[in-house]
Design goal:
CATH topology of the largest domain: Lipoxygenase-1
CATH architecture of the largest domain: Sandwich
Number of helices: 1
C-alpha cells in the first residue's frame, strides 16, 4: 500500500499544479543597464511577495540566472494558493543575496536599472475570471525614475506596496450583449523587440473575428505608417466603429495581429515582445490579451500574421 501511495503522490502534485488558477504576474522593464545573468544565483534578484496575516512567498532568481537585456520587458508569473484573495496581497520586495560580503574576485559586480514595474493578479472563482492591477510604477507617487540595483545596495530589500483598492482590468460577465448601432473600439499596447517595424508600406493591423459570423472588425495601419524602433513601446486607441449585429463579447473568437508588408528580397522583419489589447463597448471594457515573450512572434516575409485565440 505504501508503494502505491508513493507512486500516486507525483500524480497528485501534477493534478494540483495543473488546476492552479490564481496567479500574480510581475512585469519588469529594464533600463539602460542590463541584468547580466551570469549563471550565479548570488547575482540574480529574489522576489518576496508579502501578504496580510499570511506567510511570505519567496521566488529566488526570478531571471533564472539569464540575461535581461537593456530596454527589454520580462514577466515573472507566480501561482497563488486557492486560499489567497485579492485583499491578502500587500507588497513585494526585491533583493539580491551575495555569497559573501566582499566583492567577488572572479566576476565583476552587476548593476541593474529598472525603468518600470507592473503587477497584476488573476483570480478564478465559480467559472469567472477577474484580473486586477496592483501596481504600475508609472502612476505611483513618487514615480519610479528609475531604480538602480547596485552590488552595494541589493542586499537591502526594495519594497513596493500594492494598491489597497486595486484597479479591475477585466472580469467575466462585464457585459452580456449589445445591439447595433452601438459603438466599439480597441485599445492596444505593443512593445517592439530587437527588430523594428519599418513603417511606410510596412505597417501593422488588427483583425477581430467572431464564432458565429464571418464578418470581422478590422483596424488598419495602427502605427499610422510611422516606424517603430527597436525596444520601443506604443499605444493605439482606435476610432469608434459600429458593432456587428447579433454578436456579443462572448462571441469573440480570435484577435489577429498582422504585418502588412510584402515578402521577398528586402522584406521587413518585426519582433513583438509584448501585446496587450482591450475592447470597449458603450463605456464597458474587457481585456482580451496580455502576453509577453522574447519575442511573442517574429514577423517575416513568410510569417505575416499571429493569431491569438480568446478564452472566455
Amino acid at each position: 500500500m505504501k508503494k502505491i501511495i508513493a507512486l500516486l503522490m507525483p500524480l497528485a502534485v501534477l493534478i494540483n499544479t495543473s488546476m492552479a488558477q490564481n496567479k500574480i504576474e510581475i512585469e519588469f522593464r529594464t533600463g539602460e543597464d542590463d541584468l547580466r545573468g551570469i549563471g550565479r544565483t548570488e547575482f540574480s534578484p529574489d522576489l518576496n511577495i508579502k501578504f496580510v496575516n499570511k506567510p511570505d512567498l519567496l521566488k529566488r532568481a526570478i531571471n533564472g540566472n539569464a540575461t535581461w537585456p537593456k530596454n527589454s520587458i520580462r514577466r515573472v508569473s507566480i501561482p497563488l494558493d486557492s486560499s489567497i484573495v485579492i485583499g491578502d496581497l500587500l507588497a513585494m520586495e526585491i533583493s539580491r543575496k551575495h555569497s559573501n560580503s566582499a566583492a567577488p574576485t572572479t566576476n565583476s559586480p552587476d548593476n541593474w536599472d529598472i525603468d518600470r514595474i507592473i503587477v497584476t493578479a488573476t483570480f478564478k472563482k465559480n467559472g469567472q475570471t477577474t484580473k486586477y492591477e496592483l501596481l504600475n510604477t508609472e502612476n505611483t507617487n513618487p514615480r519610479l525614475t528609475p531604480w538602480r540595483m547596485t552590488y552595494d545596495n541589493s542586499e537591502t530589500p526594495k519594497r513596493f506596496d500594492f494598491r489597497r483598492n486595486p484597479v479591475v482590468i477585466s472580469g467575466s460577465g462585464w457585459i452580456e450583449n449589445f445591439q447595433p448601432p452601438k459603438k466599439s473600439s480597441i485599445s492596444t499596447t505593443i512593445y517592439v523587440g530587437g527588430d523594428d517595424l519599418r513603417g511606410g508600406g510596412d505597417n501593422a493591423k488588427i483583425v477581430i473575428t467572431f464564432k458565429n459570423t464571418s464578418q470581422k472588425l478590422v483596424f488598419n495601419n495602427i502605427n499610422k505608417s510611422q516606424g517603430w524602433g527597436n525596444f520601443s513601446e506604443h499605444q493605439f486607441i482606435s476610432d469608434q466603429v459600429n458593432s456587428l449585429a447579433n454578436v456579443t463579447v462572448n462571441d469573440i473568437k480570435t484577435v489577429e495581429l498582422w504585418h502588412t508588408g510584402g515578402g521577398g528580397m528586402g522584406a521587413d522583419n518585426w519582433d513583438v515582445d509584448k501585446f496587450v489589447l482591450s475592447i470597449t463597448i458603450n463605456g464597458n471594457s474587457k481585456q482580451l490579451i496580455d502576453v509577453s515573450g522574447t519575442p511573442i512572434h517574429r514577423f517575416t516575409g513568410d510569417s505575416r500574421k499571429k493569431i491569438f485565440a480568446i478564452q472566455q
